[in-house]
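Protocol step 4 of 5: obtain the predicted structure for the target chain.
Materials: sequence only (see below). No template structures provided, no constraints applied. The aim of this step is simply to have a reference model before the mutagenesis design in step 5. Sequence pasted as it appears in the construct record:
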Amino acid sequence: MVPTDRLLAFAAMSFLLIVVPGPSVLFVIGRALAQGRRAALTTVVGNTVGAYVLIVAVAFGVGSIVERSVLVFTALKLAGAAYLVYLGVKAWRGRGSLHAAFSGDDSAAAHGGLRTFWEGFAVGVSNPKTIVFFAAVLPQFVDRAQGQVAAQMLLLGLVFNLIAVASDAAWGLVASGARHWFARSPRRLSLVGGVGGLTMIGLGVTVAATGRKD
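Step 4 output (structure tokens):
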């Protein structure tokens, strides 16, 4: 398996990358502001599962295709960007009815939670920057002399995701806490829901406008 020194070095590098707010953090914050704590945490879980699918893809060689193909990279980038814009527009249009989130029944909450999970998953699994990052970085921390290269990459990816879950969840909780202050006023809650929607739209536009650096 992965030598301890390489595992610790990878964990330290991952922490430094994750702790700085990036696209996944902005997405979670947007969700927290628009829909609250439960939606934010469910989004974190969905996004993390989607990211781990990318890690599995990299571990078994699919990541190299995205890394080398401008066409595949661009297609994934635009798909992810379009989905973020769609979710942002949806949050913006629903900003006036956010009080329903505080009084919905259990079945509606369960359905909404499942939908939120899959939306987070879709964003995580369609992030081309993530798969390119893993394709470029994971192999550097693998000890090929130990064998089981794919298993080593899966372990490293798991470490990355555990750190990401803790960081993203913390951002989501902080943002959702601010949302509850806004919830005391329908006008303020509508405002924060709109900000959450605009955050996701802006993130989608940024992803679409960002090119490869190669």
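Step 4 remarks: Confidence is low (pLDDT under 50) at residues 101-111. Residues 149-182 form the longest helix (34 residues).
Proceed to step 5.
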